Every structure is written in structure tokens, then in C-alpha cells.
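New to this. Please check this fold:
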Amino acid sequence: MNLRTGIFGGTFNPIHCGHVGLSEWLVREGWVDEVWWMVSPQNPFKRNMQLLDERQRLEMAKLAAEGRPDLKVSDFEFSLPRPSYTWFTLQALRAAYPERTFSLIIGADNWAHFRQWVRPDEIMAHHQILVYPRAGFPLRQDEMPSGVQGVNAPLLTVSSTQIRRMIRDGEDVSALLPAQVFAYIKAHGLYSSDARKA
């Protein structure tokens, strides 16, 4: 039986408790056997965004996955052409791991713009898409095509953008991040106003 692997892609800038909670929920509820956090070196929709170094984002994801055997961290896209197009990543994953069945995990905000992605029909032809709730983007299962499933996961009420802003403003984000990730950010002075000036 093929391992059902959920691909949860993102810049993870930084990874936070929302990512962890959603991933654990998807495994616990039986949607997938495990989740791979696919750290993207460059998101085609975020080309103008100042990204933290990909190796640091990868390291934080690895710290967040510690002690969670069903959550894996992948740098698979680091060796692929940039920017990172999901259809190409999934095509390469199918070739590299024929023993696995890959589902794509995306937020309702991304689903709303899915038709703007590269080769969306090819993605849907080969992969189940699991769409999780995001504020302001209601999910209607009856309006979704075959192979696309809205999941009633807990709403993600935090974002990486919000966390970066809070750190710049000197606010406490310890409750929003896995403890190891918070310690890493603090130790390296990441996302602070001083770091941005450097």
C-alpha cells in the first residue's frame, strides 16, 4: 500500500504553531499518513519579498519537527529550478518516490487563486488537493471539482507575516512558535529591526 504523503509547501518564514497544529491534525484525522513540509527557496508569488536565507528557514522547520515522527522536512525544491512551481515539484516527487501517493495541502486563500498557478489541471489530474480554512475565504465543498476536498481543520489564526511584524515591533511571540524555533530566532536575532538594517 502506498504511503499517503501530504505535501505542505511554503516559505515558512518562519514556521509557526499553526503549521504544526494543522499538519498534526491532518495526520490524526486520517487524511494522510505523514506530512512533508516542503521548504520553498523561492515562491513565484513572493518574488519581491525579502526572504530569510533558505538554510535558516529549513533549520527552523527541522527544529519544529523534532519529536514529531509523522512530520518530515524536505529540501527537495532546493535542487529544482527556481522559482518553485508546484506542478514541477510534484512531477519530480512522483518520479523520485513511486511508492508514495502525494496529496497537496493548501489554504483556502491559495485555492481561491489556484487557476493562476502553473498547470493547475495537471496538478488536479494526478493529486488529491486538501484545502484548509483561512479567514475571509469560505469553503464550499459543492463548488469544488472532483479530487479537491475541503477539510474542517482548525482555523489558522496566525501568519508568518504577523509574527515577523510582531518581532520587529518588540512584541512577545513565544506562544505562536514552537519553543525550539523561538529560541533559534532569538539566538540569531532574526526578523528584528536591527537585523533588517544589517
